[in-house]
Amino acid sequence: MAPQTESDLTRPSELIASMMMYARPQLADAHHRFWQLIRKNLLTVGIDSPPALSQNLDEFDVWNHPGLVLSQTCGMPYRAWLHDKVELVGTPDYGLSDCPAGYYRSALVVRTNDPRQAITDFKDATFAYNQTYSQSGYAAPYWHIKSNGFWFQNRLHTEQHLESAHAVVQSRADIASIDAVTWRLMCAFEDFPKKLRVLDWTKPTPGLPLITSVANNKHDIFIAVEQAIIQLDINDRKLLGIEGLVHISKDDYLAVPNPPEV
Predict the structure, then answer these.
(1) Using CA atoms, how far apart are residues 26 and 240, in angstroms rounded to an integer?
(2) Residue 237 maps to which CATH number?
(3) pTM of full prediction above 0.90
(4) Is the dihedral of CA 218, 221, 225, 231 positive or negative?
(5) CA distances (Å), 63 to each of 83, 124, 252, in order?
(6) What domain range is 55 assigned to?
(7) Which of 82, 130, 141, 198 has the fewest CB within 10 Å, making it most exposed?
(8) In whole angstroms, what is the distance from residue 45 CA to residue 221 CA?
(9) For 71-126, what is each residue's pLDDT tens digit?
(10) Strands 210-213 and 86-93
(11) To which H or E segment does residue 231 belong?
């Protein structure tokens, strides 16, 4: 059965759930099956949830929705705007190399044929970024680059990690910061990353957390998601790259600094 999506929000009382942060066509069926397992587990503890994920809605509409059952957000929006409006459920562990469980980092990617070999060689380069409120696409590279004594004065706003990577390949930009999970998915499902190489990696920070409305029991939802990961078909778990669910404290998320320009 193909996954369904909700086209809009019609009533404030509606329940909503989304896993849009790492959504891509190749993962749609796996995300649907994952949600059905979560939904079944939620039902056993008396938590109602929508029958389908809302993958195509504006992310802030989902995160701020009063009927939010479950969604995944980015660390920077969480600490900047959401931490006092939602409950932190847990953080998926994607088993990333050189990262603690539940943490992630960003790949600073450049063209394979670019002769520059050091970060400092890119001082006058054009930097492609998805959003200024992205931890992996903007905040993490900001502090990494600043530790090298500069920040990019030439910047290209692309709105999505995928477009940032394309911008580098197409020479509209010279360097971009792509979160490690997205980079892994790009390399698995796209051909163009062969034209890119990882110049450097940023310092690991807490990964993309799962959140729910303050009206919900975050502990019950944590268990429902944790069980669903175990229940996932091995092929779906491999596709999604999820190895488990961990607790990372709210304080750990809030301790990550924001760039001063944001």
Answers:
(1) 10
(2) 3.40.190
(3) yes
(4) positive
(5) 11, 37, 20
(6) 16-94+207-254
(7) 198
(8) 9
(9) 999 999 999 999 999 999 999 999 999 999 999 999 999 999 999 999 999 999 99
(10) antiparallel
(11) helix 218-231
